Amino acid sequence: MPSLSVSSLNEQIKTLLETSFIRVSVEGEVSRITFHNSGHIYFTLKDPSSSIRAVMFRGNATKLKFRLEEGMKVVLDGAVTLYKPRGEYQINCFDVQPSGQGALALAFEQLKEKLSSKGYFDTTKKKQLPFFPKKIALITSSTGAALQDMIRVANSRYRAIELDLYDVLVQGEKAATDIVQALTLADSQNYDCIVIGRGGGSIEDLWAFNEEIVADAIYKSVTPIISAVGHEIDWVISDYVADIRAATPSAAMQIALPDTNELYQNLDSIAEQLHRSLEQKVSMKVRDIDHLKKLFSQHSIEKQIAQKLQELSQVKDRFLQTLSFKIQSCHREYESVMLRFPHTMNSVLNSKKNQLTSLHNVFSSNNPSLKSKRGFAQISMDKKIIDIDELHINDSFDLQSEKVYIHAKVLTKEIK
Length: 416
Hints:
Elements: H1 6-20, E1 24-35, E2 41-46, E3 51-56, H2 58-61, E4 73-83, E5 88-98, H3 103-117, E6 135-140, H4 145-157, E7 162-167, H5 175-187, E8 193-198, H6 212-220, E9 225-229, H7 237-241, E10 244-245, H8 249-256, H9 260-298, H10 301-365, E11 378-381, E12 384-385, E13 396-400, E14 405-409
Parallel strand pairs: 3-5, 6-7, 6-8, 8-9, 9-10
Antiparallel strand pairs: 1-2, 1-4, 2-3, 4-5, 11-12, 11-13, 13-14
Helix pairs in contact: 4-8, 5-6
């Protein structure tokens, strides 16, 4: 039997595999996933007993509505092929669906979680709508019922508004890009607010409003945006990112526009309140004037002078009474002091005499001139007083007491 080259053998195996497993559907858990720069996705599909390599090339990968993640259980639709350079077989995936869950539902939750973590849903960043808008941009399909509903509500509520239509695709593969382009253009035209929306439909029909590029454009917009997609039960990503979510396109116009009839009623109410307020103010001012007239008559200059003279007389009387009381009080204190003064002075003088006698006795007992100085004399040498310990043999020195002066010389010195 002739031998085969490795390439020939792999080619035969490739032909056998790809003709035998033209289309397979395999369920398993995603592992060791790699998103290549080329746009291809490489991963391993495994179950508790075995595994198989899988690849999803860029053309098919761009159609995925959700992001493959490690550990996700999926169902692959594809064909078994052989990668000849390494002799490894793999599944070439045409489509991937989450096990037990729709791809669009999973993609919705994944994007919702991603945008929430980036702060796209932060209520503190939501912009306020103007109370009296002048221009509103409508981003929707010109052929849809949603546009007619919005125009009808606008005409019935507030005819002073200017509505500009940006006709876009609202479903299909190109819808998201179309919406983003219209939104970017409208955001640069100084509108008071922008309404993006469409009527109801399936999740596939509404999917353009779940695309990340639409969410990015809404989040970056400086103009307040109302998202009005589908019916009240329909929720899309644009509803979470927009400044306001309206349950329907008609509800969006009710939110964005004031009601003219309600404004008229409010004006009538304000006018009535103003009239009542003016009447109350006038009535109050009339009462104030009457009161001022009475006060003026009661507080004429003559009455004020008489009142001040009376107050002055009362002050004078109080002053004389206070002065008399103070004089009497001082007189009583003076008499009391005069009675106590001789006794107090004698007591103080006796105390000071005793202190003086005591000090005199102490001074006398410590007076140096009265103490006995027998046997003591002052030693000096060269007119400087010194101690006896400072004298040496042959030193000449002076001895001096109160009455005698002696000049002497040290002959001997003995230290004890």
